[in-house]
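Hi, here's the filled form for the chain we discussed.

Project: internal
Contact: R.S.
Residues: 411
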Amino acid sequence: MNYEQSVNYIHSFLKFGVKLGLERMRALLSALGNPEKDMKYIHVAGTNGKGTTSTMLSNILIDAGYKTGLFTSPYVFDFCEIIRVNGENIPHDDLAEIINRIKPVVEKLNGEGVEITEFELITAAGLLYFSEQGCDYAVMEVGLGGRFDATNVIPAPVAAVITSISFDHMAVLGNTIEQIAAEKCGIIKEGSHVVTTSLQNREALQVIKDTVKRKNADLGVARYSDVEIIEESISGTDIEYLGNTYHIPLVGRHQIENTIGVIEAAYVIDKVCEKNIQNGIKNTVIRGRMELVDDNTLIDGGHNEECAQALKNVIEKFLASRKITAVIGMMADKECEKYLANILPLCDGVVFTKPHNPRSEEPENLTEIAKKYIKNISIENEPQMAYYKTKEQADFTLVCGSFYMLSDIFN
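And the returned structure, exactly as it came back:
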């Protein structure tokens, strides 16, 4: 298989859906020689901020001289963004070569009744690549939940980071914050060092503390009260934290919470100094997360209410004078009304579109919700067409609601 065929092969496993549990993943890794045992780890779970936190920590480790793997999802522009070493995507040919080697192992397991899922296949490919590249560390972002997520087969990490927890994937993780937090805390292993922030949801923080005590782990809480904001703009924020200054090249105050959690986690990594932390944070680029792609276009793949509130804050603070037309596509299993209620009142118009994903919400359904919040509504089912038509006419274009849609437009 070439690269395109390999990606299609990976996507063919979507038919097995999301099946939480570690038995299949352990069987697959065992058949591949247990590559997960060859490096140290930072493990990142939470509802929002996982990608930013993981990328910052990867950059810090790289600046400290460690060869570092980074596993994050979903991708925005290129499938190979999911698996990176020292900031570089896995080359297309290398991904194809690894998938060609994994394929007979997967097919053998499938023949034995062990049906590997898409995410398990991708996770195994990432771990195998990191091992064969000789990575010292791998930063692993949880895909869904934590306790039964495919990434949770790794040994006890140097640090387990729990980012902001809110309501998302309730059908799988539970209907209360406590239930969701318990699933996220499944990445906490015996004797782990655990990191979260003082802005963590109160109920979630109590679950984290209880889990840390039960697992004989230790907890570091980065305190937002220790932050002084020096300057902030749509291009980023400068802060002072515990006597040191940091430039965060990402927009929004929610990134301050992510950053101080990163700093707290970095303190426990051997041979990481303050300069490494400052450089790693300063050099962080997050694609598709409140990314200003030009002076008149902001894109954001966040999809739940907390993401919408963060985006709302950015619009109110930095874009209040602009006439915004939003291009929005969402997944049907998200809290669409809560998301739209935050964003649409700040816009002059909205174009609803449909991401190329079987879970996509129909634009007509989004339109019915939107009528409560905005008058200027239109539909363009093809995401790229929706974007380019809007871009031609709008004063300012906001593209938001789904990473899948961003991929459809900008890939």
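Let me know if anything looks off before we file it.
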